[in-house]
Specification:
The protein is of the alpha/beta class and 499 residues long. It has 2 domains: 6-49 and 94-206, Rossmann fold; 233-495, Alpha-Beta Barrel (TIM Barrel), CATH 3.20.20.70. It has helices at residues 21-32, 60-71, 76-90, 92-95, 97-111, 125-138, 152-158, 176-185, 268-282, 298-311, 333-341, 356-362, 368-381, 398-410, 430-437, 467-484; strands spanning 6-12, 36-40, 115-120, 141-145, 166-168, 195-198, 204-206, 235-238, 241-242, 264-265, 286-289, 316-321, 344-352, 384-391, 417-422, 425-426, 445-451, 456-461. Strands 2-1-3-4-5-6-7 form a 7-stranded mixed β-sheet, sandwiched between helices. A 6-stranded parallel β-sheet has the order 8-11-12-13-14-15. Strands 16-18-17 form a 3-stranded antiparallel β-sheet, covered by helices on one side. It is globular and about 65 Å long. The two termini are 41 Å apart.
């Protein structure tokens, strides 16, 4: 038994409505190894997270149209000004950085840790640099990790950050106690899989950890440190598997993240046991399954519907599903009714486009008519539905955007929320690699510059700047506004603003 060693976990993910799963997992693993763990989350100092699809206000449609025009302007200064403003609004952490830093200093003073572990999104690089400087001045070692530290471009830009001890790259949670021991002893962290350090020239040295296969070995996350009183209601996140059972969409950066590389599932019994534990620990009856595709493993999908009420009476739950072309995708009318009876109140699916031609170019693996059938069946079962959509994929025409608008118009009563996004090319995605490998294939679409530290690729798209395409987008924005302005089904309202 080691003497108590203080570790402060810093959460820079800051979800609006529920705790951050990686922090919960790290807290559980370290406590099992007898570390003295404390947690700092920005919500503890009043910094709130971002709400998904907030209901638009009186001028919401006009604002959305102006935002699109600015984002697709031919004037570079206007696009860049809009991007800078957008980054500040993207996260309350960025907008309230001083409050976060003051809260972090207070957490250091109260917990006096020997090590600080930071879980972050890439957008918070400047803040992470300041945290590292503060810790270096206090003689505290710092390990930073996050979902996108498995991209070589990202590792190269982050690893030599002044004051940083090492970067975690990949799923290292089961080895974390040993890693922290080595870090505090001043040993060679580069010998651990999944840990990168900077060499004398500032170049990364280390190996990315392989995807974790034995997910049932990971202890259930410990969310006891989070400020539950600050959340609008008590929603517990649950992850049943890592990666995506489809995993082919060319634009998707989630499947290239640390947990997204390949698909692996927990056993149905292990998932149900966690729900029982979280229900008992936290008196929770609201659950958000945060899997990329909850119906990747049909045994788990069906097990939830069959057993969740037995271990968490009165449970309500939400998740994301992929309406694939498989003969059995778990989303039949009968199974959706069973899911609704088990407490499923909302499902998200990636529609992405109302044009089959665009879906095929994306390698989405769904059919427009299949998504339509799913939306009708889910709505008839009493399940609220949410769709994600993308505009600006290479080769998309104004006619394709009109097809998306027409799809929404036909399904206004079956869809309750739409998340519409302009295409963002992310480092490491299939699309990014194709743009680099064969740029001539993409007429009027290409890379302008790459930001390795943020894993973002600025691109040029001549079509999205054309008058016909903009006109089609204006129509699409109107349909999205019409849907998002309505009230959710009463039984789904506790999950307003969630994924």
């Amino acid at each position: 038994m080691r003497p108590p060693t203080g570790v402060l976990l810093v959460d820079l993910n800051n979800f609006a409505r529920y705790p951050t799963p990686p922090i919960g997992y790290l807290a559980s693993v370290l406590r099992q190894a007898s570390f003295d763990v404390s947690v700092f989350a920005p919500l503890m100092v009043g910094v709130e997270g971002t709400t998904r699809e907030a209901r638009p206000g009186r001028f919401g449609l006009a604002a959305a149209r102006l935002n699109h025009l600015a984002a697709t302007s031919r004037l570079a200064w206007l696009r860049h000004a809009r991007d800078r403003l957008g980054r500040r609004r993207l996260s309350d952490i960025t907008a309230h950085e001083r409050a976060v830093l003051d809260g972090f200093r207070a957490a250091l003073e109260s917990s006096r840790p020997q090590a600080v572990l930071v879980s972050t999104y890439l957008m918070h690089r400047a803040l992470c640099a300041t945290l590292c400087r503060i810790c270096h001045e206090a003689g505290i070692r710092v390990l930073i990790g996050g979902p996108y530290f498995v991209q070589p471009e990202v590792i190269a830009e982050w690893v030599a950050m002044p004051g940083l001890t090492a970067l975690a790259a990949g799923e290292v949670e089961l080895e974390l106690p040993s890693i922290v021991d080595t870090m505090l002893a001043g040993g060679d962290l580069g010998r651990h899989d999944g840990i990168f350090v900077a060499d004398a020239q500032g170049r990364p040295r280390g190996r990315i950890a392989q995807p974790l296969l034995a997910l049932d070995r990971v202890p259930f996350p410990d969310y006891s440190d989070f400020p539950w009183q600050a959340y609008p209601n008590r929603i517990v996140p649950v992850i049943t598997g890592r990666g995506c059972g489809w995993g082919v969409c060319s634009f998707c950066s989630d499947v290239t993240s640390s947990a997204g590389r390949s698909y692996r599932s927990r056993s149905p019994g292990n998932v149900i046991d966690e729900i029982a534990v979280q229900h008992h620990r936290l008196q929770a009856t609201r659950f958000a399954f945060t899997d990329l595709k909850l119906n990747s493993d049909l045994a788990v999908w069906r097990g939830i519907a069959q057993h969740i009420q037995g271990v968490a009476p009165g449970a309500q739950w939400i998740g994301a599903v992929h309406v694939g072309r498989e003969a059995d995708n778990g989303l039949s009318e009968t199974e959706l009714r069973e899911a609704a009876r088990s407490g499923c109140v909302r499902l998200t699916t990636g529609l992405e486009s109302g044009s089959q031609r665009v879906l095929d170019r994306m390698k989405k693996g769904n059919r427009v008519e299949g998504v339509s059938a799913f939306l009708h069946a889910a709505s008839a079962a009493g399940i609220s539905t949410r769709c994600t959509m993308i505009i600006g994929y290479p080769g998309e025409t104004a006619e394709d955007v009109h097809a998306s608008a027409e799809f929404l118009a036909r399904h206004t009563r079956q869809i309750e929320r739409v998340s519409l996004n302009r295409l963002q090319v992310m480092t490491g995605t299939t699309l990014h690699r194709a743009l680099k490998r064969a740029p001539a294939r993409f007429k009027g679409f290409g890379i302008v510059q790459e930001d390795g530290a943020a894993a973002q690729v600025e691109h040029r798209d001549d079509t999205i700047q054309s008058a016909p395409h903009r006109k089609a987008v204006m129509r699409l924005l109107a349909e999205v506004h019409r849907i998002n302005s309505r009230d959710l089904l009463p039984r789904a309202r506790e999950f307003e603003g969630v994924m």
